[in-house]
Records
---
Amino acid sequence: MRKKLIAGNWKMNKTPTEAAALIGEIINQTSGATCDVAVCVPYIDIPAARDALKGGAIWLGAENCHHKESGAYTGEISTGMLKSVGVNTVIIGHSERRQYFAETDETVNLKTKAAIAAGLIPIICVGETLAQREAGYTDALVSYQTKIAYAGISEKDALNTVVAYEPVWAIGTGKTATDEEANETIGVIREALRCIYPGAAEDIRILYGGSMNEKNAAGLLAQPEIDGGLIGGASLAAEKFAAIVKAASL
């Protein structure tokens, strides 16, 4: 039985003061949750979020990292830096990073390895565009992205990772795959993991990241292959996020 994980991705939102206030509300409204919960916040918010989360069970996450330990990479941040300030998980390869900041399957692999080496749990994002879906490439594409992301990673290390299926056409559009469509594609991702890790694929959590919200969460989370959600807009409102956490705790 895979324990469900609900991870909030705040994107470029919230000042440190706002972050601390929102986390306080989330803590109050998610007490008693039986699923894992994470908040992935902008870099500037990490110290405030860490202090607000201190002593609790909610994971502190970042939204991106660089694969090098240090160097002349203006504007970037290393996994070691994140670890040093209390971060324990990091999103890698989000569709917006791929779309706007030239993230590739190869850099996703490098960042995943760097996160693992630093003792962070990577949340590795894969997913297709609308054009790719309509052309019938979804299964082949997510399978390929998954296999490249895990290239050169041991089974032991893979067990400390999470995958998030992000249909790019559903990110920030209000559209979402049907429960069955999401479950089917996540099943394809798991089959790709079976090809690499026959003994571990059933234990790696795969989240759905395509506009999961408080209204559709229960149906999606009831599907057998869906192990939680990577939540965008709904993670910025404590009551909405808490409703999703509640649905994952049933």
---
Amino acid sequence: MKVSVILPAAGLGTRMKTPEKAGTSRKQFMLLEGVPVLIHTLRKFAASPRVTEIVVALRPEDMEWFADLMAKETFSTPVRLVEGGDSRQHSVENALATLSADTALVAVHDAVRPFIEPALIDKAIDAAAECGAAIVGIVPVDTVKQVHLNKIRTTISRERLVLAQTPQIFRLDLLKRAYDRARADEFTGTDESSLVERLEEVEVTVVPGSDRNIKITKPTDMDLAKLLLSQETASH
């Protein structure tokens, strides 16, 4: 079964204020123990025997620089670079257009979630293979309030809530239809699942995620990332 992974990495990272690459604040290029976060993420999927290929969507001006970085790696899984867009949705759509028709499943993963565990990748792939659509998610630990103008309107039961993570994995034909519909409707979603949900063709399965599968979005996240990386390195 052919499984393609898309890593959208063309974002500008407006929430990350610490510059690392070429005077930018892009979180996917920030250095984690001397290596860009995106490379750490790439390594996880390249090490998975379930993954057939990886497609990284980048801004045009980053393509040559990142290709040089990848040349120093020894990935056993093929990695391709494609031109990304101004939004995550546009970047994933560009990458989707380059996938071969014999691709069974497409996994989209945040470029800045470098601590995805191999077992979790396998579980998500298995779930998507069975039902056509699966995402990784965790139950919130904090009490969730619905508010209006800073006033609480109600307390929402956590039992019916999940915080979506990635990877989010879908059948190729399903994800393509979701993107076609979104483009036709001029709809912008915050993740791939939100686009697939609109089709009302399949129910999206949630695979229990991990607190370690953090998304690096602000400078303080890098402190936690360094701790997680040190733990990961010590366990190998």
